[in-house]
Amino acid sequence: VDVAEGGMLFVTAQGGGPETLFCLPGAMGTAMTDFTPQLEGLSSSSRRVVSFDPRGYGKSRPPARRFPVDYYHRDAKDVVAVMDAMGVERFDLMGWSDGANTAVLVAAAHPSRVNKLIIFGGNSYITSEDIDAYEATRDVDKTWSRRMKETHEPVYGDELQPMWSSFCDGMQAIFAEGGDICQEAAKSITCPVLVLGGSKDPIVPNFHPEWFADNIPNARLEMFPEGKHNIHIRYPEEFNSMCDGFLQS
Fold first, then answer.
1. Which Gene Ontology molecular-function terms are recorded (predicted)?
2. Which residues are catalytic?
């Protein structure tokens, strides 16, 4: 898909029918690394599940990913541009981690287009605790799990470490400007929202999903007691069933 500023975005879709669910990956993520269980498990003859490689990630390169302080807003514009290019007027949104923050911005800016919103692993603001968590993972070779490295090294190769360092620098820059990501946007959302989380998430503390549930007007919170950051990958059947019920309700 051709978007603003001369960029090309890789988009994939499964299923068909009148409903569209757009899944937004997390930091460093692509459609296939982050949402294969949802592309396969939530698509049907009545629901098309769409995902993409955000600008600068995966197959949406070149150019390389950049993390200016407004990059979530840039990604939100790309989401709408993809839906426009596909001729989709109304859609459901699912966002994981960084993608959750972007999804909040899209839902707030386009209330007439977003039917329902599912978010997990996101944070509407950055605290010093968050910065410590990011910095604890800055060194990919020393701190990332084998699974994480096996997921991302085939995609990025030698670009993985400098790109992740740039992400950590981007978080530091947002924190230095006050730390807000999407707090006011979240409070203005009017569509139904399902907030999910892993109670043992080592990256995003529980106060972040709780903040979303408390501050988004029409939101409810469901936690996975043993879940960490990747609940949709670790528990795909339970996760997909919960999301499917919410989308159909």
1. serine hydrolase activity
2. 97, 201, 229
| Residues 151-201: tens digit of each pLDDT | 999 999 999 999 999 999 999 999 999 999 999 999 999 999 999 999 999
Beta-strand pair 91-96/219-224: unpaired
* Amino acid, res. 64: A
Task: Give the up-direction half-sphere exposure of residue 145: CA atoms within 13 A in the CB hemisphere.
Answer: 7
Name the residue ranges covered by the structural domains of the chain: 11-128+180-248
Is the domain covering 11-128+180-248 a CATH 3.60.15.10 domain? no
- What's the predicted TM-score (pTM) here? 0.97
Per DSSP, the residues of 27-45 read: TT--HHHHHHHHHHHS--S
| 3 state SS for 118-133 | EEECCCCECCHHHHHH
Q: Which residues contact 122 (CB under 8 A, 6 or more apart)?
A: 95, 96, 97, 98, 99, 100, 101, 103, 104, 204, 208, 209, 212
| Total residues belonging to the chain | 249
Place of tokens 């490689």: 53
